[in-house]
Amino acid sequence: MIRPFEGVKILDFTQVLAGPYASYQLALLGADVIKVERREGEDMRRTPLSREWADRGLASGWQAINGNKRSLTLDLQMPEAITIVKQLAAQADVVMENFRPGVMDKLGIGYAALSALNPRLIYCAISGFGQTGPERLGAGYDGKIQAMSGIMAITGHKETGPTRAGFAVCDVLSGATAAFGVSSALFQRTHTGKGQMVDVSMLEATLAFLSGQVADYTVAGHRQQLSGNQAVSRRPTANLFKAGEGYLLLAVNSEKQYRSLMAALGRADTLEDPRFADWFARQENEPSLRSIIEEALSKKEPREWEKILEAAGAPCASIWKVEEVIDHPQILARHAIQEIDTPFGRLRFAGSGFQLAHGGGRLDRMAPELGAHTDEVLNSARL
Questions:
Q1: Residue 3 needs a FRET pair 20 to 30 A away by CA distance; which of 33, 291, 328, 354 works?
Q2: Is residue 319 a contact partner of residue 249, using CB atoms and an 8 Å limit?
């Protein structure tokens, strides 16, 4: 079955995380992504987590976002390499890069130069702050964007202060935004026949994902605070609670769910307690309500409560580790973790996160060894 982007050719100059994550989403959906790297390869190939994989130039985090791609190495300081890039771009549908604004222009292969050769070309540039504005030349690191965007101002506890998210959230959501931007431009080209520039700012992409928090202030004048594990609903039963020897995240947000929770905990008596008559009263008396809930939860372990409360209609989850959730029955049933055979054995990777009725995302081959497809790419382009 044909996948959505089969036949689409992408010349990919991106590195580190945001850019490669974006092109990886398109590669999973069938695009032919040619990853252009400097002769020694990008530093992410050698991330110091596993010496074995770093020595191979195939660090696990790098592999996770570069599957299905082909590797071409070029020294962009050489005129001959620039000539090759221009010839490849003339045949490509998309060029993607995440250098600081102006770098590709100085090399002679920016949007203006390449679109002049190929008016149908879609050129996607991902940067910390976009191609214009006073901060345009600022470095776009995930941690910096987390700090500037407001994410760290709402993540963490008052006792410990602002906290960075446990993964590079701004990088990956910027990558997802870039993939959506490229997809939009490809679709628009079917109507206009023209390519265009897709200018992705990591700061703006992050604010787009914080749309609710932005509106809370711009509309209602609410100033966000560190929210700990509190849900955006502000319901006191949508939070993290101690349970047995661990923790349980309750997502109890409706009146029906609240009643189901208290009944399942054996505390139906609290339903008549005026301190907890409605959500406003429950919020005012949150410490007392928390004490009642945690006293009941202390009698069983989180995974036990997870089954009991879910069955009762009170949404919740115990805390799953990454190595556990990849083998969760739901994940296994939907084949959400992609498995491929490689020269190094059978490996497993996260997929695209959604399924299509036909022609969905699929990992066909592992991330490429450095320069593995240089001759193939140049020969196929008749260079």
A1: 328
A2: yes
